[in-house]
Amino acid sequence: MIQLPQIAPWLEPLWKALDFGNFPNAVLLHGQSGIGKFAFSVELAKALLCENSSDSARPCNQCEACHWFDTGNHPDFIALVPETHRKLLPRGNYEGDDASKKGKSSREDDSETSEKKEKKNISIEETRSAIENLSIGSHRGGNRVILIYPLEMLRSDSANTLLKSLEEPPENTIFILLADRVDRVLPTIRSRCRLLTAPRPHREQGLAWLIEQLGAISGLKVSNADIETVYDEQGGAPFSVLSSLIARHNKDDKDELSISIQATRYLLQSMAQGVRINWLDTAEKTHKAQYGFLLAAMQRWVSDLQSVAQGGVPRYYPKHLNTLEGLSKMASIPKLLQFWRLLVQARRNENHPLANRIQLESLLSQYQQIFGV
């Protein structure tokens, strides 16, 4: 597995502003998905566990704690992440201490459908088990770090369990919480954390970083034009672009991100048809991708369509300017605005256990009506 860089250039100012000598009990790092927050938080966890006495040289990558962390065996690091994200951890074998093993055994008899849903969520068993163990104290006498991502995917019962620990944090325990959508995090949790906002890079900086990273991967050849296209389609999220291009290079057709990107491209091709969109076929061929990923693409497309309709330029899909201009001339602006509100509402409920295909059919049929049907 190719290891992604830990601290992206656009996140370095955020890192340099951290005070390891006076670190809060809980931080909430939030920002757009795919800009390097998770890699940043893993490096932060390593720095907080590092046993080097110099705060300015953390992590030192030399001490025993750093070596344990890199091998995925540090006893004072607990990662509560869905199964779909564990491969992003050091060595890919942190499992929330013993918590996830217990959670997994309790789900062995569940149906396949339930298992798939559970893989994208952090179970209450994992959360309770991890937090119950905090009372034992750290193994090495220093900090204990709990990383939770994505925070907004916590079920309500798990969120309440976390809240109790944030209200009365155990000694020497630090919570690193990550959220792609901070507006979905409980206000009571937000109020007990120091908020850290992860910025998105400027387009030139993000593209330059991507080209450098891709150039270091043996055998991977991709044109700058292709990089720019995927970059814009991903809303300027360099880590998402890098991961997707690596997966494509490795011909990993089962990679969740690759599946979502392929589905998104088909979705956009269909939406470019305007009134001629075959919404039933489109929903059929895209519904297995991440629903939130598809909704985000639809929002970006409709945002560009609104911009062009008002005499502006597209932000996300500049290469589709001619198509967007043609669609904008046929679009009913009131219906376009109404559809935008529907997308916003759909994003708020995207994690609910509803049938993705039915929801996509409904949205795409209403998209068709924007153009006069």
Overall geometry comes to: globular
Order of helices and strands: HEHHEHHHEHEHEHHHHHHHHH
Oligomer: single chain
Query: What is the count of β-strands?
Result: 5
Give the spatial strand order of the biggest sheet.
2-3-4-1-5
Largest sheet properties = 5 strands, parallel
Under CATH at level 1, the class of the domain at 9-197 stands as Alpha Beta
Account of the 3D structure:
The chain has 373 residues and is an alpha/beta fold. Among the domains are: 9-197, P-loop containing nucleotide triphosphate hydrolases (Rossmann fold); 202-252. It has helices at residues 12-16, 37-49, 64-70, 99-105, 112-119, 124-132, 156-167, 187-190, 203-215, 224-233, 238-249, 256-271, 279-286, 291-309, 321-330, 333-348, 356-369, and strands spanning 26-30, 77-80, 144-148, 173-179, 194-197. Strands 2-3-4-1-5 form a five-stranded parallel beta sheet, sandwiched between helices. α7 links the parallel β3 and β4. The protein is globular and about 65 Å long. The model is unreliable at 93-118 (pLDDT under 50).
